[in-house]
Amino acid sequence: MQDLNRMQRLIERARLPLHPPRELSPERFLELMAVDKKVLDGNLRLVLLKAIGSSLVTASFEQDKLMETLSSYGR
Question: Where are the domains of the chain?
Fold first, then answer.
């Protein structure tokens, strides 16, 4: 939780948004993510933070969990 609080403070100090725009639907997010440079051979890859300074790039994730996250975040 300490890392989460630290990251939130850093994002706020950089004047970046903590939440996605309300007008973007989960489906629209997926459309935008589909053209991201992290898509490889048609497979979406996510960058997941393990800790500050440590991340994982993976295409191994549950699609329904991603949709659940996109549907609930900032709403």
Answer: 21-72
- Looking at this protein, which amino acid is placed at residue 62? E
Q: Which two tokens stand for residue 7?
A: 């990251």
What are the C-alpha distances in Å from 57 to residues 13, 22, 26?
26, 26, 21
Give the distance, in angstroms, between the CA of residue 41 and the centroid of all CA atoms in the same chain: 20
For the stretch 7-44, pLDDT in tens is: 899 999 999 998 888 888 999 989 999 998 889 888 99
Query: Quick one: pLDDT at residue 42?
Result: 87
CB distance 47 to 54 below 8 Å? no
CA distance between the termini of the chain: 21
What is the reported pTM? 0.71
Q: What is the pLDDT of residue 58?
A: 95
